[in-house]
Amino acid sequence: MGPVKFKPSNRDTGGTLKVALMLDDLIQSDRDITVVGNMACKAIIGTSTSALAYQMIEAASVVWKFLNGGDLPGIMALDRAYPFELNWGSIYSDPLQPLVVDVGSGNGLFLRAMASIRKDANFLGLEINKKLVNRCLDSKLELQRKNIYFVATDATSTFRTIVSSYPGPLVLVSIQCPNPDFNQPEYRRRMVQSKLVEAIADLLAFGGKVFLQSDVEVVALKMREQFVEGGKGKLLIEVDDADTLDNGGWLTENPFGVQSDWERHVIARGDPMYRLMLSKV
Q1: Per-residue b/e over 183-209, b at no fewer than 16 CB within 10 Å?
Q2: Distance (Å, rounded) from C-alpha 227 to C-alpha 201?
Q3: pLDDT digits (tens, 9 = 90+) for 29-61
């Protein structure tokens, strides 16, 4: 990927040639490579022997906006025109059971453990990493469970489309440990954006829950702020039992008794988790 602003130079292009050769080797290994930026595309076309095998995107600024979580009219139009349709009857043995959605389900260990305990509910993992989703689906087939499923998707843009078609009630949404990028603070909000918060607040059944947690306090604080403000009065933080909260207002224990893989790792090294539960009123 080339930078947005890049001026041609008369210097020796040996470095560019080396990069092109490295990328050509990757292409030969059946890797998908996308080159972004007008000058970067020109450099690859001028030096690579496999230029036709690359995906070339010259409009770098549009790509950066999309990667930063910005709304692109074309993408939004496609989401509306081609909604994500799932055959719930073939996915779950009883598609009328209450639905639990884990946004950013990762390796699926949390949902698989929950599904084994709560057979009276259906569980759906939304994960952007397709390889992780494929592994989760393979594991689901091995275990022959009909109350759990995983979808490879960007939940930020597709949550409403996917979940709104479910015939049963949405009773719980969990978002656990979204990855922060401290070099670029704006990325901390990339997964939890206003349109996701609004979709969850709208689709959640009355009395339904939202469970948020992170091992990074600034991330947990930001999520709390986004759901309280973005929920527009529909979502309230649960404070029923003061004994379950620490001085910062965080839950001291996982309310489900089921830990995600990362949560287990954090607890094992002696670090805190910052958790909270919200209810729809």
Answers
A1: eeeebbbbbbbeebbbbbbebbeeebb
A2: 8
A3: 767 778 877 777 787 787 777 767 777 777 767
